[in-house]
Specification:
- It is built from twelve helices and two strands, in the order αααβαααααααβαα.
- The chain starts with a helix and ends with a helix.
- The protein is mostly helical and about 350 residues long.
- The chain has a two-stranded antiparallel ribbon.
- It is globular.
């Protein structure tokens, strides 16, 4: 194995984590200065910030890719993101709460805004079902439907921002990292820290993905298989890191809102780009990823029926990603021998 690639991989993961600490700190102050509720801060500001780089990557792949393979990467990213978020990201929150509860002597439960999370997941499921249905049919005006997906996200954002909810108290916020002695930093400072952290996260994530491909090749994995298995986790790493940081701070609602908001972005914006610039015909692995995502969301709907969710049960959703990986590898082996 390439030791340099492994060191870079671990180094980038560390850079992303510490940059995410600066990002969540900045975005909380940003939400406070914009008078947003905590959930809106997580579902809109934090989610849009961390999902923006991934959406740009999808746009570049489908709009400027010079080969069908590059466009397939863009389509795969549009489906891999929701899969990683609905399984791995929620499982990480469950595990983080469980570990934090043991350390602090608290109950291993997650406090959730059950009604709001279930509503978000239902929105996601309806949009996701349409997204998959469009991927198995062919008709001439399909590209125009991309506008509907952008409109759906705009409507979701408007509803989140217009929802009245308790915001941040300055006493609950840690000092802004670039202004540690300022008890009430201005909006400009919060924006500067958030933007700078986001740029570092974007750069480190790109290096992380490249090194992951190198490590996958060194392990003897087929490049396409490695991309399908690992790239979604790599591209959703900022959301996962944000969730861990917020759970560690006792802000589980922000962690869950960030994941929920990121899922809505992944269901709409990259899909719109795919519809605009590709035929949007899904391959067998993509349909498999969609099926596992739908099962995960249905499980989460059942789990979020109560405002108190057992963290061990939440962690179980991560097994669905393991099932996806096992079935995908079996399918790949069958295709190669066929």
């Amino acid at each position: 194995m390439d030791i340099t690639a492994l060191v870079l991989l671990l180094g980038c993961a560390a850079v992303i984590y510490f940059s995410c600490e600066a990002f969540v700190n900045g975005v909380e102050w940003l939400g406070h200065r914009l008078h947003l509720g905590q959930t809106a801060t997580g579902t809109v500001l934090a989610a849009f910030g961390t999902a923006l780089p991934e959406s740009v990557v999808t746009l570049v792949a489908v709009a400027f890719g010079h080969s069908p393979a590059q466009k397939e990467i863009g389509i795969g990213a549009a489906l891999g993101g929701p899969l990683a978020l609905s399984t791995v990201a929620y499982a990480v929150v469950g595990i983080a709460v469980l570990l934090t509860a043991r350390r602090l002597g608290r109950q291993p439960e997650v406090e959730v805004n059950a009604r709001r999370l279930r509503r978000d997941q239902l929105w996601f499921l309806m949009i996701f079902a349409l997204k998959i249905a469009l991927g198995v049919v062919v008709f001439s005006f399909k590209p125009w439907l991309g506008i509907l997906f952008l409109a759906a996200y705009a409507l979701y954002t408007w509803k989140e921002l217009s929802h009245e909810e308790a915001g941040f108290d300055e006493g609950d916020l840690e000092p802004l990292k670039i202004r540690p002695r300022d008890p009430a930093p201005a909006l400009g400072w919060a924006m500067a820290q958030t933007t700078a952290a986001l740029l570092v996260i974007f750069a480190a994530s790109r290096v992380f993905v490249k090194q992951l491909e190198v490590v996958g090749s060194a392990l003897g994995l087929d490049p396409q298989l490695a991309a399908l298995l690992f790239s979604p986790i790599a591209t959703e790493l900022p959301e996962v890191m944000n969730a861990v940081i917020w759970v560690r701070q006792g802000k589980e609602r922000l962690a869950l809102a960030n994941i929920s908001g990121a899922m809505m972005i992944q269901a709409t914006v990259p899909t719109a780009f795919g519809l605009f610039f590709t035929p949007w015909i899904l391959s067998t692995p993509s349909i498999l990823a969609a099926m596992v995502t739908a099962v995960a969301v249905i499980f989460l709907q059942w789990l979020f029926r109560s405002p108190r969710v057992n963290s061990l049960k939440l962690a179980q959703v991560g097994w669905l990603y393991a099932v996806f990986a096992a079935v995908l590898m079996a399918w790949q082996m069958g295709s190669s021998h066929g």
